User: Fold this.
Amino acid sequence: MDVQEVTYRIERVKGGDKEAFGPLVNAYKDMVYTVCLRMLGSEADAEEAAQDVFVKAYRSLGSFQAKAKFSTWLYRITYNNCISVIRKKVKMIDLVEEIPEGEVDEGELNGLKSLSSEERSKYLKMAIESLAETDAVVVTLFYYDELSLEEIASVTGFSNSNIRIKLHRSRKKMYQVICENLKSEVSSIL
Assistant:
């Protein structure tokens, strides 16, 4: 959905047309669900949280001032809602990871290119799931949703430098997880 269509839909909702919100939900439901799933880890929790996000967005649409893109505003609501869900479950979020001592040769990840896209997706999914919830969200927003550091900062409240650190550490951790999984699969074949 382009910016003009989003703006048009928002103005119609603000004007009292409840039906105009439906296309916005359809346009952003996958993005919201993906962020919820990455942060919460459970499909059921993600579905419930995504529904809550759209209810909150609808109720707050009157305060949307288009200073940021609608998607960034919606990401922020999604992120905050998921953090609230996590806090309610009294789940500890580990924001500090150990940095591996040796530098990762990311060129070795080119071995993933020899795998089928289905296998690649499987290993990347495992690697992302190994990350702390907030790190997984940052990786998803940066690589899958292609948000800029500034947009991710707006969504998460982290500084640009903190996001860079999280991305760097996450890539290292993902590299290790992928290598471990590939080694164990090769060992099981032999």
